[in-house]
Batch of 2 targets.
Target 1
Amino acid sequence: MRSCRRTENPRYGTKKIMLTKIDEFFTKQIHSCAIAGHVNPDGDCVGSAAAMYLYIRKNFPWIDVRLYLEQPKDELMFLPGLKDAIFERPKAGKTDLFITCDVSAIDRIGLAEELFGMADHTLCVDHHVSNPHFAENNLVDAEASSCAEVLFYLMDEEKIDFEIAEALYTGIIHDSGVFQYKNTRPETLEAAAFLLRKGVPFNEIIDDSFNKRTYLQNRILGYVLCGSRLYADGRIVAGSVTYSEMDRFGATKKDLDIIVSQLRLTKGVEAAVFVYQTGAEEFKVSLRSNTYLDVAAVAGRFGGGGHVRAAGCTIKGNVDSVEKAIVEAVRAGLK
């Protein structure tokens, strides 16, 4: 499987991109490269960005490559490549090539958005159905489980070593829910099988970066579940947490990642809604669905986006008005 996508961007025009390898971007004319993920990076973002960084560093030594990420959660810091990552906003400067990994829109680039605008060439590797193809070259497969899966099929398999495999596998298991989510397809498992043959310690990665939670995370999860609400005859479940409630537990946004996925598992539910405060009169909304509801379309009504089964947006208001607005939008999409 190889990527074949059409990019439609006013800045660059329209063209069809057909690739056998991502290596075609790393010519001798490219001397500097910046890689960035999205804001609040998750496992797929961190894994795919780290894999891309390692792939270039190990195989294209003439390229000065740098990885820019917002600080990942502690459970992901084991990944090779992160010891070289830059976790602060860079000074403005020009780079030959800028690569985004798992970034669905230009305003979702974490830390290094200014470098993107100044780069000679830009490349977007992604799997979000809502991606508007914002780069010069866009390698977007909306049917893939993860950005890491997209990247795997673009790489030269002979150049994937143990460290690159570890980063790719981490990205895949995080966005596929360890192959439980509906975005898992045969190609996902075939990629995982190849990576396992590289000796990836799959059980440790799954337990340490995906399954295990701190006592604090369990407490805030339990609190939200206990206060959750059912709508639409039990087909929608919603939970929320405000700044004051987060402060009560000593929680940050990094402690909230698992909550919407747990809400989704409620029996009889088609859609799960999780609302948490991110600013004064501002709330982030995470959406998940089980069988048919396109939550990316729901999120799009509020300026957000994502995947058919997992999406998000930001809404202004108080916790009650935000929950009411998003629940009504979800309700309108139910059969």
Target 2
Amino acid sequence: MTAITYDSYGGPEVLSISEVERPQPADDQVSIRVQAAEACKSDTEMRSCSFSASWLSVPMRLVLGVRRPRRPVLGLYFAGVIEAVGADVTDFEVGDEVYGTTGLRLGSYGEHLVLPAKATIAPKPATMTFAEAAALPLGACNALNGLRRAQVGAGDTVLVNGAGGVIGAYGVQIARMLGAEVTGVDAAHKESFVRSMGATTFVDYQATDLATLDDRYDVIFDMVPSTPIRRMLALLGPDGRYVSGNPRFTTMLRASRLPLTDDRIQTATDGESRAAFTELAAMVDEGHLVGIVDRVLPMEQVAEAHRLVDTEQRLGAIVLAIGPDAEQRRASTTT
């Protein structure tokens, strides 16, 4: 099968198109014909083995491979069609349209993907394209988990730091769905996009020092680990809650509920499950969430896809169309 592979850590140039052996499902597994895979920040960090949350560098290198990658095919998030099921599988049938995550098994940058039937896979939202569905789980699931931990409700004021990223943009949508008034923080060129997601107020962090803001917020959803947490906490009102979706190690310690920790601080680094993905699909099909896709690129342009993610030159997700009919599916996504 055709796949995007890499055999060393480095920049986008280490990625190439290769022919690799097609995986075969065991009795408790399913084979998925991948239609689309999100090129996400986690993919680019694993490609380079360099992580914005620096505390991850050592454990992830042990997982991925100390000197070179153990798994040559990247890819965490995908959408596709069940093409074969093992003898013991009862949850899925051939022809089911699904979306989900591979976890650290990786592999969604290839035409065929084999996963345990009990993996985090769910029916694809009926109203989404494969590209939109591939870009749903990372952003929407993390945002939903974080905002629920913060108990966002009607009338709350919510500040989303990094509102122009995929998780942040879904955070804006979900906070609005929960009845909150949302302020989005990001670079000026993302203002129209962030407002289109539902933010009523926008702050350009390059022109405005957040420390000078007069408003105080019930909830801060923070996707920017480089922003000093003390600056964020100073913006909380009475009984305010701070949630980091991309925490530093020190933030995780402060949220750990150990003695002397700060009970205002929480992290949103888990929450991916079949139940959560099924719930998100329902939210989409009921009209509460919309897809966030900047562009869909063919496999041959994977290096460009990773550059766009690395440099944040995007408004929404970058998605790879996987397989020989990718051009037709890219065309159907943009019409």
